Amino acid sequence: MAEFTRQRGKRQEDGGLGSVLDLLLANARLVLGVSGAAVLAIATLAVKRLIDRATSPRDEGDPKAEQKTLEESWQDLALIKATPKPRKKQRREDLSEPLLSPARPPAPGEACKPKVCSAPPETPRVESSPLCCLTLQEKLLSHYSSQLAVPEVQASLAPQLARSICAQLQNFLRSKCPELPFSSLFLSGPLLDGLGALAADHVNLMLPVVLDAALWSLIPGEDTVVRNPQYWMIKRTDLEYFPRGRSPWDRFIVGRYLSSNALNETLRKMLVASINWPAIGSLLGCVIHPVMASQELKLEVKHDQVELSITLFPVVEMEDKVLLAAPPEGLVENLWLESFYRAEVSKVKELDAGDSGARQHCLRILNGICKSHPALHKLSGSPLTHVVLHLSATSSDWAEESLADRFQQVLEELVSYLEEGVLPSYFNHKINLFCELLEEEIDEMGFMVYRAISEPELLLKEK
Fold first, then answer.
1. How far is CA 456 from the centre of its chain?
2. What range(s) does the Mab-21-like HhH/H2TH-like domain occupy (predicted)?
3. 17-57 pLDDT per residue, tens
4. Cut 0.90: pTM above it
5. What is the dihedral of CA 179, 184, 187, 189, to 10 degrees?
6. Which of 112, 134, 256, 380 has the most CB atoms in a 10 Å sphere around its CB?
7. What are phi and psi of 97, to 5 degrees?
8. How far apart are CA 30 and CA 338, in angstroms?
């Protein structure tokens, strides 16, 4: 019954619509003429068909009916678009003139001048440019040259400012703490070593701590409280024979271990309260502020042409180890982080020099992408370098012509490491470089890199 009522109402609506259309078409000839009425009839018929199909019940389970309806809709739309437009009437400049002037014979003595038909203005031809279909190799090289190039002014000014600040800090430490045997400070980081500089905005300032090997020894990371092979402890030895005070660094001992946290806190107080940064900044033509909220020892430098962040790292070199005063977050304060940065840079450059490879190009592109990507920024730096070093052990063709192949291969290797949640260090396979990442972060990174294997352009879009 309900279906019947619905169909009935539909027929009444169709009948009413048909009456209106018939009345319109009956009077169209009087108003629009024959050609105008034909145009209106065709358009009206097409529109009516579309309305009928829109209001008629659909066969949800019949794909042939749906396909037929779709085809008829496209035909009706084509019919409407193909309807010829009525010609516009010639505009009369003067309403007193007739539409067509009768031809008159030439006056006596009047020469019949041939009519010159001026050619219609040429329509400018638009040359269709070929579609821009760049290969992945070309896109990578274009991204490298356009996105990763540091402006020349910044590339020269940033290291210059950092060296000047380094010299000022060195002079202050020698005058303020002459009893502490700090060695000469030096700069480090991608801006200077060329493995990942996306902008001239960050430099590391390394402060060497000189220890007497007879009074200090290293405790392996596996034997520390965190059981992490990347963190070491520096133990004060032979206190029975060489009591406290024998080493100038004994003032930073906590439980017979040289405390990286205690040393950092002492340096932080100096950076914040003891050094006259406004005077140094005025001398160098910039503004220098210590960063209070950061766990690291950081300075912010603002110049008219560059903004620079400088991180100060006390560093100990013993037994072929490079240890940074960068303890993990938490209550543990005696741990020193083993750094492989110097070895990473040296090994990559050594491999590239041996086979004229493009490992450094590949790393700059990858580091630039990950640093600017919100989901991948924790992959930049050491993790990517170690993936490239692992891959170099099995893939020997690192010529620039193979950059695209190696780029995709690095992504594939990275996905496999993220799936396992383990990226072993190239220099010490006991160290997992993913150990401090959360499982959710690893999943998000893995999903993004997995998509990029089939669509590398996702990573090359400008951020």
1. 12
2. 359-445
3. 555 555 555 554 444 554 455 445 555 555 555 556 555 55
4. no
5. -70
6. 380
7. -80, 145
8. 95
